[in-house]
Amino acid sequence: MYAPLFSKLDHLLVETRNFWQFMPFAETPAAWEADHPALYQWLMALTDDEVAYYLSDSTALSEALRTWIPQADALTALTDVPALAHIERETPRGLDTGIPGRKWSQLQAFNGVLPALSLPWLEWCAGKGFLGRVLHATHQTPVVSLEWQQALCESGDEAAKKLGLDMTFVQGDAFSPDSEQYIQPQQHAVALHACGDLHVSLLQRVAAKQGQAVSISPCCYHLIRDKAYQPLSQGAKQSALQLSKHDLRLPLQETVTAGNRVRNLRFIEVSFRLGFDSLQRAVRAQDTYMPVPNVQKALLNDGFEAFCLWAAEQKGLTLPAGIDFAHWQQQGEMRFYWVERLELLRQLFRRPLEMWLVYDRACFMEEAGYQVTVGTFCDKPITPRNLLIHAEIVSPWTPTP
Ligand SMILES: C[S@@+](CC[C@H](N)C(=O)[O-])C[C@H]1O[C@@H](n2cnc3c(N)ncnc32)[C@H](O)[C@@H]1O
């Protein structure tokens, strides 16, 4: 059921990859001006207020960009996913003790869209088992919560005992073969915001053991052990797209307009980095980006020249005498302006790429014999990672004699 949707998205993302599959930092305005002159002019003419407006309105962004990217409307339409039907499930008083307000809303929303299958639960990468708490209290079936950090297991166990909940905490590594023992055929496995490979490992193990049901809300797609994305479904394996960790960060880069202080700090750091990059390209006579490690923020107060001397030392680069630092700082500031506009352009592809990754997971489960549902479990202010994949083995219907 999801394979045709995946295939359409895949086709459009492959066709448009020149517009999103790159590192804005490493791109120079000159190359874009040569390759896409009209789009370049439009982006460069945008005021900061217009950038903020398009960041806040993805439909307006898509409409504006369709002149140069005719696939924009189709891509945006393919990100339309239904909100899952929600059942309000009452929780006993005091269950939310120690749970931050926004997390509590996420838990209730997640629990509210799960079918009641009367199965025991497995909570994968459980943290303190907040979700397990809500699941047990509303469904009354036992919960096993697997978590890597011993301290979180202890804290969750203590709370469960106080609240009288049937929860068993297991300290374990989700990637270890040992953890497979916790996956049972008659079970509903869940993972709320388990990062990258962690939720993928759950899907793979549930599919291998033909567990009855699994519901996950994916996040942090870039937290993977391999260098590049390992496709799961047949469609993704055949795709021409190869996704680097940098590409996999795009779905999480929901650029919100920050306050003035944060914006100024970002302007200083990013323009210094870009200014140094332009300088090093000239010094080395090589037009390639050179990444510089994280910097102690205090160093930025010493100014652009001090930053360049530090960065050059980090990279073992000898700077010649007589550098016009003011010129390179200005170059950096110009490139900052450009990078912000390229980031705006990439926003058009943020949700489509996330849906490509989600449908890859959905198709993988369908190929393993599951009936799959994809939808949102809450509104974005509660969490921007609001997609849920539910997969369930639905027994074939047998007529009653
Ligand atoms: C983003 S938190 C989500 C926690 C919880 N599901 C929630 O939504 O509040 C991810 C959790 O995965 C745990 N984790 C990370 N690596 C793990 C591993 N290899 N095996 C088991 N748990 C792991 C972390 O310690 C952390 O508690």
TrEMBL record:
Q: Residue limits of the Methyltransferase domain?
A: 122-226
- Extract the coiled-coil ranges from the record: none
Sorted alphabetically, which keywords does the UniProt record give? Methyltransferase, Transferase
Q: GO molecular function terms here?
A: methyltransferase activity
Q: What is the name attached to this protein's record?
A: SAM-dependent methyltransferase
One example of a Gene Ontology biological process annotation: methylation
Q: Does the keyword GTP-binding apply?
A: no
Matching InterPro entries, A to Z? Answer: Methyltranfer_dom (IPR025714), SAM-dependent_MTases_sf (IPR029063)
The keyword Methyltransferase belongs to this UniProt entry's keyword annotation: yes
PANTHER family xrefs:
GLUTATHIONE S-TRANSFERASE C-TERMINAL DOMAIN-CONTAINING PROTEIN, PTHR13369
